[in-house]
Structure prediction request, 358 residues.
Amino acid sequence: MSNVSVRNLDIVLGGNAIIEKLNLDVEEGEFVVLLGPSGCGKSTLLHSIAGLIDATDGTIEIGGKDMTWADPKDRQIGLVFQSYALYPTMNVERNMSFGLRINGTPKPEIERRVKRAAEILHLEPLLKRKPAQLSGGQRQRVAIGRAIVREADVFLFDEPLSNLDAKLRTELRRELKQLHKTLGSTMIYVTHDQVEAMTLATRIAVMRGGVIQQIGAPAAVYEKPANLFVAGFLGSPGMNFLEGKLERGGNGYVFRSGDIAIDVSHYAFAREPALGATVTAGVRPEDLHVALGDAKYRGTVSLIEPMGNHHVVWFDYAGKTFSSIAGETETARLDESIGFTIDPRNISLFDQASGQRI
Prediction:
């Protein structure tokens, strides 16, 4: 195991600054997920750690050693790509051992490593098969096994599950989490899928425009997003937003948006807010509750999405559309008038001008 330290990293490609002054510390044994939309720089960052893209400026340390200009083969990393990149004429065993054979690793050592990787990834019955005889999930496990046999200090994953169907993604996600538990290795994983990020990560680094917007434990990032981008990017459905102002009321402050008034006296402000300040309130769908009976606020149901054990109810209120996660007994009918309440305990408040959490 090794830690990874990125300091003041700049990457310019084709005259365009992709990453500027980026800093990232990954501790030994951590599973850090780089999460963000396409084009945010997460794969570029991963490839620079792997040595596939040269840094324009800054340093990359792996295990306390400066690896900024080291060749990929000297960085003690195992890299798994989105595409399987298996040799079609070689069986599973030879695909997994190819790099070791090229490096002149003794045959008994190759056999030991391949056997161990095959056991971890449940590939023993498939070792003599060729890639064409494998499913997509099995091929990706072979690609992961090829990285494992290197017994690397750091494993890097570049959207390894994006080519798989939903069921296979779920299965392999579980296997990757178990793999991290078994190996205890340092892992850095790139994805745009927030479900993968939330379920796999020790910490999530949310990226936008080559900048890390927030890094922290999945629950912390979800519950206390640092800015409007993070708040809107995490969550399915996304966070509901209300624009309004802060007023004095109760034991502290009240957020008011039209007819809606939310007591935010409990809110942990980063600094004393200005009265009358224009702010944006964010409410997760699970904190916005529909009520078929009487309620203070009422909206009109515009869409219902059955999700098995719950429904996502979309409704219109004061010219805006909101989403709520509702149980079977709370489900309304399309175009029906419903009441709703807002649980203020998990509300997030953001400065409207800067977009930063207040």
